User: Fold this.
Amino acid sequence: MFIKRFLLTQYGLRCYLCQHRSKSTVGHQKTTTVLGQSYEVDPWTNVSPAILEKIGMNLHSQKYHPICLIRQRIQDFFYKRFTKRGNPIFSVFDNESPVVSLKQNFDNLLVPENHPSRNQADSYYLNSAYMLRAHCTAHQQDFIRAGLNSFLIVGDVYRRDTVDSSHYPVFHQLDGVRLFDKHDLFEERVSQPDALQLFDDTKHSALNQAGHAIEATLAVQHDLKSTLEDMATILFGKDIETQWVDAYFPFTHPSWELEIKYQDKWLEVLGCGVIQQQILNKSGAGSKVGWAFGMGLERLAMKLYDIPDIRLFWSKDQRFLDQFRVDDPHSNIQFKPFSIHPPCDIDLSFWIPEMFQENDFYDLVRSLGGNIVEKVELIDVYTYTKLKRTSHCYRITYRHPDRVMEKVEADAITKKIAAEASTKLNVKLR
Ligand code: DAH
Assistant:
């Protein structure tokens, strides 16, 4: 999210879902309650009931769920790493609330004020101070400040996105951090660790941060890359091809993405890098250096188990869940699709108002259509120059997981969507 969203523009503050029932009215103040905490609604609020419903489902901790199985595999890999003295290196945190402050999600991680990822169109805000975390990296600084050197964070993350078989507004991430003092870093690598430094007066370059001694950067980098390559091998087998691609994240430098070759295509599986020293300095770990990474679990699980559609992770259908009932998370599982019922496509066209955001419409469709909506696609944009009006045509693909979707049923939902779009998003139906 931190590299690819530069094209989005800022748009006006607005709360189109204020009237929703999950928000309660206390006196004149509206609040949203999440996990027992109330948050005042303000012009930044854009969480929808369909999203709030997902909070607390914790697929990453549900026994036998594929997201939990893959998390266990990765966790086992990290548990098997020991210090020289035989202590396990990593602790795991999987129960942090997904409600975080904007400070945790952005400021602590040096995300600039005007960075596009802060846009309302991209993230779910409870109000102008709290949001649903857009990445597990949001907890990184808190754990470092608490004195931890090596840890994993697993959790659900929330991003406003298009709707299709590989995008869903809630998914799961696993982040990892490892910090080193001079001893940890050099002891296992060289015979005279005392001759080496973590810090010196090296200038900033594409290869290192200002103040990081070259030998320290290279050693951190080597530990990071070899750890993650080993992890990829554990997940996908020893024949897996990998490649490192230079990347940018505000919280690391240098930064990379790891790609794996999967069915003849390069697939990006994680982002990582050397933690910005400024973050460590602010968190009481200024005498250390370290690496961090973060990755999405759905994407890995889809490849590993051959799961064709991201919505299946939310399915309660036993035909899906039963295929993952294995006590050993390292078992080889290939998902076998069960009978798929035919889709039903309905097109909806409307004139859009000036401040229209596509993601508002996608959220609305998902709120009303739920999991029956397989895909929403903008199939036509038409501008009537004379009247300075633009029209969008969306194709909504419905598919019921358990039975044939009747056209009348799809029509009825589309009608509701059309009605809400015109009252809440100010579109004019064509
Ligand atoms: N948080 C990033 C994302 O969601 C992934 C990431 C990149 C996490 C680099 C990290 C990191 O901890 O060091 O796109």
